[in-house]
Amino acid sequence: MSHYSDEEKHKLLDEIKLKNRILVEGIAFAPEVFRHLDIGGKYIEQVNVLFTHDRHAHSNIEFPACFLTPLGKYRVQIRWNIDSPLKLKYEDGIYNIYDRKKLVIENIEFTKRPEYYGRKTSDGTAMRTVAADYGYGGMFVSYSNECSLKDKGMDCLFCNINATKEIYSQSQDIKWKTPQQVGETIAVGYKQGFDHVTISGGFIPERREVEYYIDVAEAIQEATGLEDFNGTACVGAPEDLSVFEKYKEAGFRTMATNLEIWNEKIFDVICPGKAQLCGGRKNWLNALDYEVQVFGRYNVRSTVVSGIEPKESLLEGIEYLISHGIVVCASQWYVNVGSPLEGHRTPTEEWHWDVFERTAAMYRKYGISWEKIRNANANADTVPYDLFRLYENIDVNPRYYRAAD
Ligand code: SF4
């Protein structure tokens, strides 16, 4: 806990606003600009394990994954957009960002690479492809890099998981992960300061993920020696809600089920597979309520895609879910390469800022703690969470989960 002065708060708020603008607009740069940067050595690289966040494909050239805002408090994901008004340039040995002609970040601090990214599992798999560093001590495992909804023509219209596979699975050697690979990787990461893991992935045929998740939990427990390994299992709404008890028994501390869209009619169109194959939206809401019964209030998370449905509908959904004991992760819909909605635009930064300020206010109104937010989320570095921490005077290191000095 820290107490920011008014002046510090003002500066940090400006940094979060800039971050919001960058995440809405993306950043333009020449793809070879990073040849002077030790990507994959000192600095962490993008590993496209689930979705790629860029607007364009770049399968044969590595980009850094993210950087910190100038005061070092907020992580900003790099989203490549050659049409962005924000330009990243290499000048006199440093990297700078300009907003049109104005210098807004001088000498960017790229995020450092965790040591485990350079290691391999006992079967020779690169650990960086097994679990990604999502900041704040969180490791993210995407067991698959594909979603079976695509084959049925029912994939979510904002999602590019299968395009990501086509672009990056060969060049970055990304495959399905075995429980043993996951256990070994998490054990190494936890020794290096990480302390939370999310297991996620696309839909798999027959929806038999529960068996896999139980095997993964056992493998992590065995490799780390931790019965409670602070794990989040992210799954779609099942037909039989009693499976949530199995996830709990297996040792997961938190659950996540991502509704994505609040308005029922828009949900049906944007997420046809989630709507038609999982008992409809009603079953998604029932599943979330059931998860809260089994795991407890705010030990459950749901992600919503901000910017597809009308603002008031989205905010109604966010408040409904939070009031039901669910941590809601809201982040900018960023139209990325290969999704069915490629070519569309997300709303303005002002639109998103209004949603995020009101969302952060709701976290505070319902008394959710940062600890709960962090433990229920794969990436606790979205703008509403940054705003929440600022208003709550919570100062944490964005790379590992340690209180800032
Ligand atoms: S369920 Fe939807 S959001 Fe999830 S991986 Fe499949 S298509 Fe993407």
UniProtKB/TrEMBL annotation:
The keyword Ligase does not apply. Keywords: Iron, Iron-sulfur, Metal-binding, S-adenosyl-L-methionine. It holds the Pfam family Radical_SAM. Residues 133-379 form the Radical SAM core domain. InterPro entries: Aldolase_TIM (IPR013785), rSAM (IPR007197), rSAM_sf (IPR058240). NCBIfam families: variant_rSAM. This is Radical SAM core domain-containing protein. It comes from Pectinatus haikarae.
